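Following up on my earlier message about FE2/S2 (inorganic) cluster. Here are the inputs again, as you asked, copied directly from the submission form:
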Amino acid sequence: MAAGEIRFRVRRGGGADDPEARYQTYTLRVRPRMTVLDALVAIQNGQDPSLGYRYSCRVGMCGTCALQVNGRPRWACRTRLQALGERVTLEPLTNFPVLRDLAVDMTPFFDKMKRARAWAEPTGAASSEPARIPPESRERGRIEPHIECITCGICYSACSMVGHDPAFLGPAALNRAYTLVCDSRDEIGPNRLANLADEHGIWRCHSQFNCTEACPKGISPTAAIQGLKRRAVADGAKSFVGSILRGRAPGA
Amino acid sequence: MESSGPPVPSSVWNVASWRSMYPGMWSWVVQRLSAVVLLILFPFHVLNPYIAWLRLAVLALVILHGMHGLKVILTDFGFPARHQRRLLWALAAVGVAAFFALGFLRRAFWGFI
Ligand code: SF4
Ligand code: FES
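Thanks, got it. Here's what our run produced:
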Protein backbone atom coordinates (compact mmCIF):
# COMPACT_ATOMS: atom_id res chain seq x y z
CA MET A 1 0.00 0.00 0.00
CA ALA A 2 1.27 3.43 -0.89
CA ALA A 3 1.32 6.28 1.62
CA GLY A 4 -2.08 7.90 2.18
CA GLU A 5 -3.89 4.73 1.22
CA ILE A 6 -6.29 2.83 3.42
CA ARG A 7 -7.37 -0.76 2.96
CA PHE A 8 -11.07 -1.20 3.68
CA ARG A 9 -12.42 -4.60 4.58
CA VAL A 10 -16.13 -4.39 3.93
CA ARG A 11 -18.76 -6.97 4.82
CA ARG A 12 -20.90 -7.64 1.76
CA GLY A 13 -24.10 -9.61 1.24
CA GLY A 14 -26.10 -10.97 4.16
CA GLY A 15 -29.49 -9.78 2.89
CA ALA A 16 -32.25 -12.00 1.55
CA ASP A 17 -31.37 -11.21 -2.10
CA ASP A 18 -27.69 -12.00 -1.58
CA PRO A 19 -27.52 -14.22 1.51
CA GLU A 20 -23.86 -15.23 1.32
CA ALA A 21 -21.95 -12.96 3.73
CA ARG A 22 -18.34 -12.28 2.74
CA TYR A 23 -15.63 -9.65 3.12
CA GLN A 24 -14.37 -7.61 0.22
CA THR A 25 -11.28 -5.45 0.23
CA TYR A 26 -10.96 -2.03 -1.38
CA THR A 27 -7.88 0.15 -1.37
CA LEU A 28 -8.47 3.87 -1.51
CA ARG A 29 -6.20 6.91 -1.56
CA VAL A 30 -7.62 9.18 1.11
CA ARG A 31 -7.40 12.90 1.69
CA PRO A 32 -7.04 14.63 5.07
CA ARG A 33 -10.28 15.11 6.99
CA MET A 34 -12.07 12.48 4.93
CA THR A 35 -14.79 10.54 6.74
CA VAL A 36 -15.84 6.91 6.51
CA LEU A 37 -18.87 8.04 4.54
CA ASP A 38 -16.69 10.01 2.07
CA ALA A 39 -14.67 6.84 1.54
CA LEU A 40 -17.79 4.76 0.89
CA VAL A 41 -19.02 7.28 -1.66
CA ALA A 42 -15.60 7.32 -3.34
CA ILE A 43 -15.46 3.51 -3.47
CA GLN A 44 -18.96 3.33 -4.89
CA ASN A 45 -18.23 5.99 -7.51
CA GLY A 46 -14.79 4.80 -8.53
CA GLN A 47 -14.58 1.08 -7.84
CA ASP A 48 -17.81 -0.74 -7.11
CA PRO A 49 -21.24 0.69 -7.92
CA SER A 50 -22.91 -2.33 -6.31
CA LEU A 51 -21.75 -1.43 -2.76
CA GLY A 52 -24.82 -0.96 -0.52
CA TYR A 53 -24.92 1.51 2.38
CA ARG A 54 -27.25 4.23 3.62
CA TYR A 55 -27.06 7.91 4.46
CA SER A 56 -29.10 11.09 4.15
CA CYS A 57 -27.84 14.22 5.87
CA ARG A 58 -24.02 13.72 5.93
CA VAL A 59 -23.76 15.96 9.02
CA GLY A 60 -24.75 13.85 12.02
CA MET A 61 -28.40 14.84 12.13
CA CYS A 62 -30.42 12.01 10.61
CA GLY A 63 -28.78 8.93 12.11
CA THR A 64 -29.20 6.77 9.01
CA CYS A 65 -25.50 6.16 8.30
CA ALA A 66 -24.70 4.13 11.42
CA LEU A 67 -22.48 1.11 10.88
CA GLN A 68 -19.62 -0.69 12.62
CA VAL A 69 -16.16 0.76 12.20
CA ASN A 70 -13.49 -1.64 13.48
CA GLY A 71 -16.07 -3.44 15.59
CA ARG A 72 -17.64 -0.39 17.18
CA PRO A 73 -20.90 1.27 16.13
CA ARG A 74 -20.33 4.77 14.74
CA TRP A 75 -21.85 7.29 12.36
CA ALA A 76 -20.07 6.93 9.02
CA CYS A 77 -20.52 10.65 8.32
CA ARG A 78 -18.87 11.82 11.55
CA THR A 79 -16.03 9.34 11.79
CA ARG A 80 -12.77 10.69 10.42
CA LEU A 81 -10.40 8.24 8.78
CA GLN A 82 -7.35 9.95 10.26
CA ALA A 83 -7.54 8.22 13.64
CA LEU A 84 -8.39 4.77 12.28
CA GLY A 85 -5.08 3.54 10.91
CA GLU A 86 -4.32 1.92 7.56
CA ARG A 87 -6.78 -0.93 7.84
CA VAL A 88 -10.44 -0.27 8.46
CA THR A 89 -13.14 -2.91 8.81
CA LEU A 90 -16.68 -1.84 7.98
CA GLU A 91 -19.65 -4.00 8.93
CA PRO A 92 -23.37 -3.42 9.35
CA LEU A 93 -24.69 -2.66 12.84
CA THR A 94 -25.06 -5.73 15.03
CA ASN A 95 -28.50 -6.75 16.35
CA PHE A 96 -30.31 -5.55 13.20
CA PRO A 97 -31.39 -7.76 10.28
CA VAL A 98 -29.13 -7.02 7.32
CA LEU A 99 -30.82 -5.58 4.23
CA ARG A 100 -27.80 -5.48 2.00
CA ASP A 101 -24.07 -5.02 2.64
CA LEU A 102 -23.83 -2.22 5.22
CA ALA A 103 -27.51 -1.25 5.34
CA VAL A 104 -29.71 -2.74 8.05
CA ASP A 105 -33.43 -3.02 8.59
CA MET A 106 -34.49 -0.67 11.42
CA THR A 107 -37.95 -2.26 11.82
CA PRO A 108 -37.30 -4.07 15.14
CA PHE A 109 -35.88 -0.86 16.62
CA PHE A 110 -38.93 1.22 15.76
CA ASP A 111 -41.30 -1.60 16.72
CA LYS A 112 -39.82 -1.39 20.20
CA MET A 113 -40.32 2.37 20.28
CA LYS A 114 -43.98 1.55 19.71
CA ARG A 115 -44.00 -1.16 22.37
CA ALA A 116 -42.52 1.34 24.85
CA ARG A 117 -45.23 3.87 23.79
CA ALA A 118 -42.46 6.35 23.09
CA TRP A 119 -44.69 9.35 22.44
CA ALA A 120 -46.26 11.92 24.76
CA GLU A 121 -49.86 11.29 25.70
CA PRO A 122 -51.29 14.41 27.30
CA THR A 123 -55.03 14.29 27.97
CA GLY A 124 -57.66 16.48 29.62
CA ALA A 125 -56.42 19.57 31.45
CA ALA A 126 -52.82 19.11 30.42
CA SER A 127 -53.58 19.61 26.75
CA SER A 128 -56.01 22.54 27.11
CA GLU A 129 -53.48 25.05 28.45
CA PRO A 130 -49.82 25.58 27.61
CA ALA A 131 -47.76 23.81 30.26
CA ARG A 132 -45.04 25.70 32.11
CA ILE A 133 -41.88 23.74 32.79
CA PRO A 134 -39.15 26.26 33.66
CA PRO A 135 -35.69 25.47 32.29
CA GLU A 136 -34.23 25.50 35.81
CA SER A 137 -36.86 23.16 37.27
CA ARG A 138 -35.88 19.71 38.54
CA GLU A 139 -38.24 18.15 36.05
CA ARG A 140 -36.52 19.82 33.12
CA GLY A 141 -33.13 18.98 34.63
CA ARG A 142 -34.01 15.29 34.59
CA ILE A 143 -35.32 15.33 31.01
CA GLU A 144 -32.70 17.58 29.39
CA PRO A 145 -29.76 15.13 29.10
CA HIS A 146 -31.98 12.56 27.36
CA ILE A 147 -33.86 14.43 24.63
CA GLU A 148 -31.38 14.76 21.77
CA CYS A 149 -31.74 11.18 20.48
CA ILE A 150 -31.89 10.92 16.67
CA THR A 151 -32.80 7.20 16.66
CA CYS A 152 -29.65 6.08 14.88
CA GLY A 153 -29.68 2.66 16.54
CA ILE A 154 -26.05 2.80 17.66
CA CYS A 155 -26.88 2.14 21.32
CA TYR A 156 -29.18 -0.70 20.28
CA SER A 157 -26.33 -2.26 18.34
CA ALA A 158 -23.85 -1.75 21.19
CA CYS A 159 -26.10 -3.41 23.78
CA SER A 160 -25.11 -6.97 24.62
CA MET A 161 -28.50 -7.55 26.23
CA VAL A 162 -30.33 -6.84 22.97
CA GLY A 163 -28.10 -9.49 21.42
CA HIS A 164 -28.92 -11.85 24.27
CA ASP A 165 -32.68 -11.19 24.38
CA PRO A 166 -34.13 -10.06 21.04
CA ALA A 167 -37.35 -9.06 22.84
CA PHE A 168 -35.51 -6.53 25.06
CA LEU A 169 -36.80 -3.01 24.41
CA GLY A 170 -33.25 -1.70 24.29
CA PRO A 171 -31.55 1.56 25.30
CA ALA A 172 -33.12 4.06 22.88
CA ALA A 173 -36.77 3.15 23.51
CA LEU A 174 -36.23 3.13 27.28
CA ASN A 175 -34.34 6.42 27.12
CA ARG A 176 -37.27 7.99 25.29
CA ALA A 177 -39.74 6.47 27.74
CA TYR A 178 -37.79 7.97 30.64
CA THR A 179 -38.21 11.50 29.26
CA LEU A 180 -41.96 10.88 29.13
CA VAL A 181 -42.23 9.30 32.57
CA CYS A 182 -40.50 12.41 33.95
CA ASP A 183 -42.74 14.79 31.98
CA SER A 184 -45.64 16.21 34.01
CA ARG A 185 -47.64 16.81 30.81
CA ASP A 186 -47.72 13.12 30.07
CA GLU A 187 -50.71 11.57 31.76
CA ILE A 188 -50.15 7.89 31.42
CA GLY A 189 -46.96 8.07 33.51
CA PRO A 190 -47.59 5.25 36.03
CA ASN A 191 -49.11 2.97 33.38
CA ARG A 192 -46.20 3.69 31.11
CA LEU A 193 -43.82 2.52 33.78
CA ALA A 194 -45.79 -0.66 34.47
CA ASN A 195 -45.53 -1.42 30.78
CA LEU A 196 -41.73 -1.18 30.93
CA ALA A 197 -41.04 -2.98 34.19
CA ASP A 198 -40.60 -6.57 33.11
CA GLU A 199 -37.81 -8.89 32.06
CA HIS A 200 -37.85 -7.57 28.48
CA GLY A 201 -37.87 -4.00 29.78
CA ILE A 202 -35.85 -2.16 32.41
CA TRP A 203 -34.89 -5.26 34.42
CA ARG A 204 -33.00 -6.72 31.47
CA CYS A 205 -30.41 -3.94 31.71
CA HIS A 206 -27.22 -5.00 33.49
CA SER A 207 -25.62 -1.55 33.70
CA GLN A 208 -22.82 -2.43 31.32
CA PHE A 209 -22.76 1.14 29.91
CA ASN A 210 -22.19 -0.02 26.33
CA CYS A 211 -24.95 2.31 25.10
CA THR A 212 -23.53 5.20 27.13
CA GLU A 213 -20.07 4.62 25.65
CA ALA A 214 -21.37 4.36 22.10
CA CYS A 215 -24.00 7.12 21.81
CA PRO A 216 -22.60 9.86 19.53
CA LYS A 217 -25.00 12.37 21.08
CA GLY A 218 -23.50 11.88 24.52
CA ILE A 219 -26.76 10.54 25.89
CA SER A 220 -26.63 7.93 28.66
CA PRO A 221 -29.53 5.52 28.17
CA THR A 222 -28.06 3.62 31.14
CA ALA A 223 -28.80 6.62 33.37
CA ALA A 224 -32.34 6.80 31.97
CA ILE A 225 -32.93 3.10 32.64
CA GLN A 226 -31.57 3.47 36.18
CA GLY A 227 -33.99 6.38 36.66
CA LEU A 228 -36.86 4.17 35.52
CA LYS A 229 -35.72 1.37 37.82
CA ARG A 230 -35.64 3.72 40.81
CA ARG A 231 -39.15 4.90 40.02
CA ALA A 232 -40.41 1.35 39.61
CA VAL A 233 -38.89 0.37 42.97
CA ALA A 234 -40.39 3.48 44.65
CA ASP A 235 -43.83 2.71 43.17
CA GLY A 236 -43.55 -0.90 44.31
CA ALA A 237 -42.52 0.13 47.82
CA LYS A 238 -45.41 2.60 48.01
CA SER A 239 -48.02 0.04 47.04
CA PHE A 240 -46.43 -2.51 49.39
CA VAL A 241 -46.64 -0.13 52.37
CA GLY A 242 -50.10 0.98 51.28
CA SER A 243 -51.43 -2.55 51.21
CA ILE A 244 -50.02 -3.26 54.68
CA LEU A 245 -51.59 -0.06 56.06
CA ARG A 246 -54.92 -1.07 54.59
CA GLY A 247 -54.58 -4.35 56.45
CA ARG A 248 -54.23 -6.58 53.45
CA ALA A 249 -51.46 -8.95 52.52
CA PRO A 250 -49.04 -7.35 50.03
CA GLY A 251 -49.91 -8.25 46.48
CA ALA A 252 -53.45 -9.34 47.41
CA MET B 1 -38.94 -8.35 7.27
CA GLU B 2 -38.84 -10.75 4.36
CA SER B 3 -36.18 -9.01 2.34
CA SER B 4 -33.64 -8.90 5.16
CA GLY B 5 -31.12 -11.45 6.33
CA PRO B 6 -30.08 -12.38 9.87
CA PRO B 7 -28.36 -9.75 12.01
CA VAL B 8 -24.61 -9.67 12.45
CA PRO B 9 -24.12 -11.25 15.88
CA SER B 10 -23.56 -8.86 18.77
CA SER B 11 -19.87 -8.40 19.45
CA VAL B 12 -20.12 -9.89 22.94
CA TRP B 13 -21.05 -13.25 21.49
CA ASN B 14 -18.39 -12.94 18.82
CA VAL B 15 -15.00 -13.84 20.28
CA ALA B 16 -13.15 -12.27 17.35
CA SER B 17 -14.33 -8.76 18.24
CA TRP B 18 -13.59 -8.73 21.97
CA ARG B 19 -10.94 -6.14 21.30
CA SER B 20 -13.68 -3.60 20.70
CA MET B 21 -15.35 -4.18 24.08
CA TYR B 22 -15.82 -1.11 26.31
CA PRO B 23 -14.43 -1.06 29.90
CA GLY B 24 -17.87 -1.39 31.49
CA MET B 25 -18.50 -4.52 29.46
CA TRP B 26 -15.18 -6.01 30.55
CA SER B 27 -16.07 -5.23 34.13
CA TRP B 28 -19.33 -7.14 33.74
CA VAL B 29 -17.65 -10.13 32.08
CA VAL B 30 -14.99 -10.24 34.79
CA GLN B 31 -17.69 -10.23 37.45
CA ARG B 32 -19.56 -13.12 35.86
CA LEU B 33 -16.40 -15.19 35.40
CA SER B 34 -15.15 -14.46 38.92
CA ALA B 35 -18.46 -15.72 40.30
CA VAL B 36 -18.21 -19.00 38.44
CA VAL B 37 -14.58 -19.56 39.44
CA LEU B 38 -15.37 -18.65 43.06
CA LEU B 39 -18.21 -21.12 43.15
CA ILE B 40 -15.75 -23.84 42.20
CA LEU B 41 -12.79 -22.73 44.38
CA PHE B 42 -14.54 -21.58 47.54
CA PRO B 43 -15.57 -25.04 48.83
CA PHE B 44 -11.95 -26.22 48.59
CA HIS B 45 -10.83 -23.15 50.53
CA VAL B 46 -13.37 -23.89 53.26
CA LEU B 47 -12.21 -27.49 53.47
CA ASN B 48 -8.55 -26.50 53.71
CA PRO B 49 -7.79 -22.82 54.39
CA TYR B 50 -4.04 -23.51 54.53
CA ILE B 51 -3.50 -23.83 50.79
CA ALA B 52 -1.66 -20.54 50.20
CA TRP B 53 -2.37 -19.99 46.49
CA LEU B 54 -6.03 -20.85 46.97
CA ARG B 55 -6.32 -18.38 49.83
CA LEU B 56 -4.95 -15.58 47.65
CA ALA B 57 -7.06 -16.60 44.68
CA VAL B 58 -10.23 -16.54 46.75
CA LEU B 59 -9.33 -13.15 48.19
CA ALA B 60 -8.61 -11.70 44.74
CA LEU B 61 -11.79 -13.15 43.24
CA VAL B 62 -14.01 -11.94 46.09
CA ILE B 63 -12.60 -8.44 45.64
CA LEU B 64 -12.95 -8.51 41.84
CA HIS B 65 -16.53 -9.67 42.17
CA GLY B 66 -17.37 -7.26 44.95
CA MET B 67 -15.95 -4.17 43.26
CA HIS B 68 -18.16 -4.60 40.22
CA GLY B 69 -21.12 -5.22 42.50
CA LEU B 70 -20.32 -1.96 44.23
CA LYS B 71 -20.22 -0.21 40.87
CA VAL B 72 -23.68 -1.47 40.01
CA ILE B 73 -25.08 -0.57 43.43
CA LEU B 74 -23.67 2.97 43.20
CA THR B 75 -25.12 3.25 39.68
CA ASP B 76 -28.49 2.04 40.99
CA PHE B 77 -28.47 4.79 43.58
CA GLY B 78 -27.81 7.48 41.03
CA PHE B 79 -24.03 7.79 40.65
CA PRO B 80 -23.67 10.05 37.57
CA ALA B 81 -23.35 7.93 34.44
CA ARG B 82 -20.91 10.37 32.82
CA HIS B 83 -18.34 9.42 35.46
CA GLN B 84 -18.82 5.67 35.11
CA ARG B 85 -15.34 5.08 33.67
CA ARG B 86 -13.75 7.07 36.46
CA LEU B 87 -15.79 5.07 38.97
CA LEU B 88 -14.51 1.87 37.42
CA TRP B 89 -10.85 2.93 37.68
CA ALA B 90 -11.36 4.26 41.20
CA LEU B 91 -12.90 0.98 42.33
CA ALA B 92 -10.11 -0.94 40.61
CA ALA B 93 -7.61 1.06 42.69
CA VAL B 94 -9.63 0.44 45.84
CA GLY B 95 -9.70 -3.26 44.97
CA VAL B 96 -5.92 -3.49 44.57
CA ALA B 97 -5.42 -1.62 47.86
CA ALA B 98 -7.93 -3.89 49.59
CA PHE B 99 -6.17 -6.97 48.24
CA PHE B 100 -2.84 -5.98 49.80
CA ALA B 101 -4.33 -4.58 52.99
CA LEU B 102 -6.51 -7.60 53.67
CA GLY B 103 -3.78 -9.91 52.48
CA PHE B 104 -1.44 -8.61 55.17
CA LEU B 105 -4.04 -8.18 57.89
CA ARG B 106 -5.48 -11.64 57.41
CA ARG B 107 -2.00 -13.12 56.86
CA ALA B 108 -3.07 -14.43 53.48
CA PHE B 109 0.45 -13.88 52.17
CA TRP B 110 1.82 -16.22 54.81
CA GLY B 111 3.58 -18.96 52.98
CA PHE B 112 4.62 -16.66 50.14
CA ILE B 113 6.74 -14.04 51.89
S1 SF4 C 1 -29.63 7.25 22.34
FE1 SF4 C 1 -27.85 7.92 21.13
S2 SF4 C 1 -27.05 6.02 20.17
FE2 SF4 C 1 -29.14 5.58 20.89
S3 SF4 C 1 -30.43 5.92 19.07
FE3 SF4 C 1 -30.40 7.86 20.28
S4 SF4 C 1 -28.73 9.07 19.41
FE4 SF4 C 1 -28.45 6.97 18.65
S1 FES D 1 -25.74 10.71 7.27
FE1 FES D 1 -27.11 11.62 8.69
S2 FES D 1 -26.17 11.13 10.61
FE2 FES D 1 -24.70 10.39 9.18
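One observation from looking it over: Residues 221-245 of chain A form the longest helix (25 residues). Hope that helps, and feel free to reply on this thread.
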